[in-house]
Amino acid sequence: MTEIAARDALSDAIRYWEPRRILYNAALLLVVAVTYCANLPYSRATVNADSLLLLFVLAVLANVAYCAAYAVDVVAQISAFRGRWLRMRWMLLVVGVLFAGVLAHFFSGGLFANLS
């Protein structure tokens, strides 16, 4: 078993996670778009400057939450389980996207819901 420096583990984590951030954001955008369309025509009435700003803040917070993967990834890489982790870390991506998608559904559903 070879030792890996924290710097190398962090560099590897960045190389792995950053290209996948596009997939993560695309999945969340799809969830919000489907929720918007599913609630038409009511959702059209809720789109204003404040709701767009709220969506922007939620998108930034979703990307901050995405960074939690770095802590898990780097710790796992510097552990004795590095080899196994590198083969299985895609599961963290899947669980994270699913979890974020559920949160996006609930938040956007609350934003675009029929209020009458």
Q: Which terms would index this structure?
A:
116 residues; mainly alpha; 83% helix; 0% strand
Describe this structure in a few short sentences.
With 116 residues, the protein is mostly helical. It has helices spanning 6-38, 42-46, 49-66, 68-77, 82-88, 90-112. The chain contains six helices and no strands.
Can you describe this structure?
- The protein is mainly α and 116 residues long.
- It has one domain (6-111).
- The chain is 83% helix and 0% strand.
- It has helices at 6-38, 42-46, 49-66, 68-77, 82-88, 90-112.
- Helix 1 packs antiparallel against helix 4 (68-77).
- The radius of gyration is 18 Å and the shape is elongated.
Helix content: over 70%
Given helix and strand content, the structural type is mainly alpha
Strand content: under 5%
User: What is the subunit arrangement here?
Assistant: single chain
Number of strands: 0
Cα distance, first to last residue? 63 Å
Tally of individual helices? 6
Profile the largest sheet.
none
Question: What are the secondary-structure elements, in order, as H or E?
Answer: HHHHHH
Shape: elongated
Count structural domains.
1
Q: What's the rounded overall pLDDT mean?
A: 94
The whole-angstrom Rg is: 18 Å
| Spans where pLDDT lies below 50 across 5 or more residues | none
